[in-house]
Design a protein that fits this description.
hydrolase activity; 340 residues; alpha/beta; nucleus; 10 helices; Protein ANTAGONIST OF LIKE HETEROCHROMATIN PROTEIN 1-like; single chain; hydrolase; 2 domains; metal-binding
Length: 340
């Protein structure tokens, strides 16, 4: 992060983290408070190490990290990670079509386990299949490796499918309140009729009307193997985004010893900072300009209740078969036959 970018970030976050001087002591300035929080996110060093480097108390570092991480999320989320609207989804779909030759794709979805120290009296809530304790970061990523939707705080024992089912995003995906564009006919494939806009995920996710997953099994015919390859090729952007995130913010490569509440704030701050810095790299506006109606209420993602099974509907299965046929016929690319 260059000095200019740090100053820009300080201008956005500074008003939220500035403290008042008193006649007893001078407060720690916003620049130093921001630097302490960024140091923790970027290195994952212990509070004691950071306290020694900045000559402040360990408890002071703990308070600063919690407050500043929350302020970073509050200050940047509307600019760098707004709730996507219809035109935003269309722009994402155009990006996947251009870069990854996958039509009507509005994002790649996956989960990442953020390793934490086992909280007191938590039992097996945070114990995952890797035999560590973790929180789950569920994310939707676009073709430019930008996080569009994040959900942090799922228990480590939950699978990706369970995290999706219990998240506000999963509820909105199932009830159709995400404001996805209407079904669209793919250019050059008019005979197949309109196809829905979909998210792509791995085998851990259920097959839904707007969520594609690979065909299961090892003994698949060539057509299905080609479909799985094309889907996995588009889905890899979320894996790459997680790699970029953990490389920049190396807190995610260590065992985080803070409470789950503070860990959640830090992970959300790292995600929104990832978008803030990446937009500088790709020179991209904060969001797709859209015309807003004065009498239209912007939908929000609310807390979701528990939901039912992951059984796919006949419509979902038919849609996957249609995409499979498309990738093997008019949607085929010249090099895919050499890969599968």
């Amino acid at each position: 992060m260059s000095k200019e970018v740090f100053d820009e970030l300080l201008g956005k976050v500074g008003p939220l983290i500035t403290k008042v001087d008193t006649h007893l002591r001078m407060s720690i300035g916003p620049a130093e408070r921001l630097a302490i929080c960024l140091r923790y996110l970027a290195t994952g060093d212990s509070y004691a190490t950071i306290a020694f480097s900045y000559r402040v108390g360990r408890s002071t570092v703990a308070v600063i990290v919690k407050e500043v991480a929350g302020a970073i999320w509050t200050a940047l989320v509307e600019e760098c990670m707004p709730v996507p609207q219809v035109e935003d989804w269309r722009a994402i779909a155009a990006g996947f079509q251009e870069r990854w030759e996958f039509p009507n794709c509005v994002g790649a979805i996956d989960g990442k386990h953020v390793v934490i120290q086992a909280p007191a009296n938590a039992g097996s809530l945070y114990f995952n299949y890797k035999s560590t304790h973790s929180l789950v970061l569920l994310a939707v990523v676009d073709a430019e490796y930008l996080f569009r939707v994040v959900d942090v705080g799922g228990f480590g024992r939950s699978s990706d499918s369970g995290s999706l089912r219990n998240s506000a995003f999963g509820e909105s995906l199932r009830d159709g309140s995400l404001q996805l564009p209407p079904d669209t006919v793919i250019a050059g494939s008019e005979r197949r009729g309109p196809l829905p806009h979909v998210f792509v995920g791995d085998e851990a996710f259920p097959l839904l009307d707007n969520l594609l997953r690979p065909f299961p099994g090892r003994h698949l015919n060539r057509e299905r193997r080609l479909f799985n390859y094309r889907l996995s090729r588009a889905r890899l952007v979320v894996e790459c985004a997680f790699g970029i995130l953990s490389t920049q913010w190396r807190m995610l490569r260590r065992v985080i010893t803070t409470s789950p509440e503070v860990t959640e704030l830090c992970v959300k701050a790292a995600c929104v900072l990832h978008n803030f810095l990446r937009r500088k790299t790709i020179d991209m506006p904060s969001r797709t300009p859209i015309a807003r109606s004065t009498d239209e209420v912007t939908p929000t993602l609310c807390d979701a209740p528990r939901m039912g099974s992951n059984n796919a509907t006949r419509q979902s299965i038919q849609q996957r078969e249609t995409f499979c046929s498309y990738f093997n016929e008019e949607g085929a690319v010249r090099w895919q036959a050499n890969v599968v």
